[in-house]
Amino acid sequence: LSRLYQSDFSRLFPSFIRLNQAAIVASILLAVSLLVFAIVRRRWLPAPLGAALAAATIAAGFVAGRQPAARVEFEDTHVVHRGGELFPHEYTVARFAYRGGWILHEGDSLSFLARAGPATLHYVTGIPSLIQIGTRVYALDPAPGYRAIPIEIERSGRVVLRCVRGSVNLDRLESR
């Protein structure tokens, strides 16, 4: 769904690899679904109403998945990658022990859903680099480890982040 609709549906499914709020929400929804199933099964609730309730739950999940998330992981499927490469590479031993990300080189770009307003960009680079988000350009200073810089997302919706100069490993973007 994430790749097909270019939206972050992954945050709606529980993950024990990258813990997320969906694990809690999914547990609650599962409990409610089982309760509704039990009610329908005992004929306290007509089957068509139970089916309508299930369809409404699926529709609500679809609408939520199409909204910009508070956190964007740049290696995720819903992010459209135009160039660059996954970090660490796919078959890296103990890949889970690394901080993930997507490496952009000069001219590469990413496209993703984001919320308007202030955000924090997490990155690492070994050389001075420039990225552009909307009409704003940000200088990224080299450092031995990951850094976080404040940025501004001009409008909600699909955003393009382009590497103007240098090379940078982008980890995540968090709306504030």
Give the key terms.
single chain, 176 residues, alpha+beta, six-stranded antiparallel β-sheet, five-stranded antiparallel β-sheet, 3 helices, 24% helix, elongated
Describe the structure.
Helices cover 24% and strands 36% of the residues. It has 176 residues and is α+β, with helices and mostly antiparallel strands. The strands form two sheets. Strands 1, 3, 4, 6, 9 and 11 form a six-stranded antiparallel β-sheet that branches. A five-stranded antiparallel β-sheet has the order 2-5-10-7-8, with no helix packed on it. Strand 7 (129-133) and strand 8 form a beta hairpin.
Describe the SSE topology.
Layout: H1 2-5, H2 22-41, H3 47-65, E1 71-73, E2 80-82, E3 85-87, E4 101-105, E5 109-114, E6 117-124, E7 129-133, E8 136-140, E9 147-153, E10 157-165, E11 167-175
Antiparallel strand pairs: 1-11, 2-5, 3-4, 4-11, 5-10, 6-9, 6-11, 7-8, 7-10
Structural class assignment? alpha+beta
- Following the backbone from N to C, one meets helices and strands in this order, namely HHHEEEEEEEEEEE
Largest beta-sheet characterization: 6 strands, antiparallel
How large is the count of helical segments? 3
Overall number of strands: 11
For the terminal residues, how far apart are their CA atoms?
26 Å
Q: Show unreliable segments.
A: none
> Strand fraction band?
35-45%
Helix fraction, binned, reads: 10-25%
The backbone outline, from C-alpha atoms, is elongated
Give the averaged pLDDT, no decimals.
81
Q: What is the gyration radius calculated from CA atoms? A: 20 Å
